[in-house]
Write a structure and sequence with these properties.
The structure is a single chain. By secondary structure, this protein is mainly α. The protein has a single domain (about 10-160), classed as Four Helix Bundle (Hemerythrin (Met), subunit A) (Up-down Bundle). Helix content is about 65%, strand content about 5%. It is built from seven helices and two strands. The chain has helices spanning about 10-35, 35-40, 50-70, 80-95, 100-120, 140-145, 150-170, and strands spanning about 130, 140. It has a two-stranded antiparallel sheet with strand order 1-2. Helix 1 runs antiparallel to helix 5, helix 3 packs parallel to helix 5 (about 100-120) and helix 3 runs antiparallel to helix 7. The protein is globular and about 55 Å long. The N and C termini lie far apart (about 55 Å).
């Protein structure tokens, strides 16, 4: 592993790690604050309970590693939007009873693995690009994918917050 003295981290990767760490901490704080009703009964715009969305974020960390590995090798990321959506729906059905404790463990373990993965990306790999099937077949670079790593959890965190806030507003009225 590189050390700052021997081989400083590329600023683009460093910024992606910073943003990832920031949003991951927000996701964990949100999950910890959820009560059982928030976790199981509040439905997000994805059509899933908040707990399922939180677990989807944890799985997304590992999915992103696979995608980035394909891009690093200049290989197309397999799949298409429909298959990706079907996989997400299957995950939602399988993990709809996952507990907060299980999800937090997966979030923490997967985030640690993902963070270590990000810091090991070499600067010369950032320009590698390939077709990204799940994104509709667009050509995407490793750099673009690395920059986007905080976007996925941030979007879903926003949806979870909206679901809880909307339900709180309904209860208050």
């Amino acid at each position: 592993m590189r050390t700052p003295e021997e081989d400083p981290m590329d600023e683009r990767i460093s910024e992606a790690v910073r943003q990832f760490d920031e949003v991951h901490a927000e996701v964990v704080a949100f999950v910890l604050a959820c009560d059982e009703r928030d976790w199981r009964e509040r439905t997000t715009v994805e059509g899933w309970p908040v707990g399922v969305v939180a677990h989807h974020i944890a799985v997304g960390y590992t999915t992103a590693m696979g995608w980035i590995d394909h891009l690093r090798a200049g290989e197309a990321v397999p799949g298409n939007p429909e298959a990706h959506d079907a996989g997400n729906a299957e995950h939602a059905a399988v993990f709809d009873q996952t507990t907060k404790a299980e999800t937090l463990a997966d979030l923490e373990a997967n985030a640690a693995t993902f963070r270590e993965f990000l810091v090991r990306i070499e600067p010369d790999e950032l320009s590698s690009e390939a077709v990204h099937g799940p994104a509709g077949g667009v050509v995407i670079s490793v750099e673009r994918m690395v920059r986007a790593t905080a976007g996925h959890p941030r979007l879903h965190l926003e949806h979870m917050r909206e679901a809880v806030a909307a339900d709180d507003a309904e209860v208050a009225s």
